[in-house]
Specification:
Keywords: Membrane, Transmembrane, Transmembrane helix. The chain contains 2 helices and no strands. The longest helix has 26 residues. It is mainly α.
Amino acid sequence: MQGGTDQAACDTLGKMRLRLNRQQRLSPPQAHTPAARKDAWLWRLACLAVNLIGFELYAR
C-alpha cells in the first residue's frame, strides 16, 4: 500500500465484495430459462471481476 487512496479503494472494494456475496446468497438467479442462465453467468463473471480487482489492489 502506498497511500490513503489505495487503502480507501481496498476498503470500498471489500465492502462491495461483501455486499455482492450477501446478495448472491440471498437471491441467486434461477437457472430455468436460457436468459436466466446467461444472467447467472454474467453474475458469476461480475463477482469474479470484483474479486480479482480487489485481490490485485490488496496484493500491491
